[in-house]
Design a protein that fits this description.
By secondary structure, this protein is an alpha/beta fold. It is about 45% helix and about 20% strand. It has a single domain, classed as Rossmann fold.
Length: about 270
């Protein structure tokens, strides 16, 4: 693990998809689609994968995503007096980790009702409902008051958002002064020797697993492609600064396969 940011310039593909430009297109994996078309297309992906999402996460990452999420939750710093808004929280891993770690009230939000439904069922099974709220919400337009939460998290969700700058602006808006935003997302591999193996796994194995387990190869092809079109470590850190976050930090995990970005609202 490393806390360093790769200083190499971003490629055009890596900078795509941030900021609103009227009439512009958005990336949907390697495809360019009208901006207004991306959300329903992403929603269809997660409607399809929701029933097998947690199982596929284990298979796709060989279970490593669980270690990444434990590190992420620890970085959030759960405390009984702090509240969490979990954006694109899907089936609830981050919210549940926060509550198990002693955090205060949490809101599990997602734009996709199918994913949130799986999270709600899991919460009932874990008896966590008392401290956990559920909100179907677009992370680009949150139905949450200004300066109302202490932590905002998003794990493996930002790359699926159409206007990433709007998500960051909303996260800052709803944070109290002294609050912190953290993002866990796939990023750019920092260890050259890992790249061929990682690419082979992403583009040859994952779609086949998707087909075999979830009956949907295309959605997992999109997910693999969406990682490559997402802003790299340095570019995303710059986006956090542009959104007004202070003391922005980056922590690479597993050689940069994933990274945690963080920033404070002063």
């Amino acid at each position: 693990m490393s806390d360093n940011i790769d200083s190499r310039p971003s490629t055009p593909q890596q900078t795509a998809g941030s900021g609103y430009r009227p009439g512009a297109s958005a990336d949907f994996g390697y495809r360019s689609v009208p901006r207004e078309a991306k959300k329903p297309m992403v929603r269809a992906v997660f409607d399809s994968v929701a029933p097998k999402y947690d199982l596929m996460n284990d298979l796709m990452s060989l279970g490593i995503h669980r270690a990444w999420k434990r590190i992420f939750v620890s970085a959030l710093g759960p405390r009984p007096h702090l509240s969490l808004l979990d954006l694109a929280g899907g089936t609830g891993d981050i919210s549940f980790g926060w509550l198990r770690g002693g955090g205060g009230p949490a809101i599990l939000s997602d734009i996709n009702e199918s994913m949130l439904g799986v999270g709600r069922e899991r919460a009932l099974g874990n008896a966590m409902v008392a401290k956990l709220g559920f909100v179907v919400a677009d992370a680009e337009r949150l139905p949450v008051p200004d300066r109302s939460v202490d932590r905002v998290s998003i794990a493996f969700g930002l790359r699926n958002c159409t206007d990433k700058d709007a998500v960051l602006a909303e996260a800052r808006r709803v944070l109290r002064p002294g609050g912190r935003f953290l993002c866990l997302e796939f990023s750019r591999v920092q260890v050259a020797a890992l790249t061929p193996l990682y690419d082979a796994w992403s583009f040859r194995v994952l779609p086949r697993l998707g087909s075999m387990i979830a009956g949907d190869a295309a959605s997992y092809q999109y997910l693999a492609e969406s990682i490559r079109t997402f802003p790299d470590q340095e570019r995303l850190a710059g986006m956090l600064r542009d959104a007004g976050f202070a003391r922005v930090g980056v922590r690479n995990l597993s050689g940069g396969i994933a990274a945690i970005h963080s920033g404070w609202r002063l």
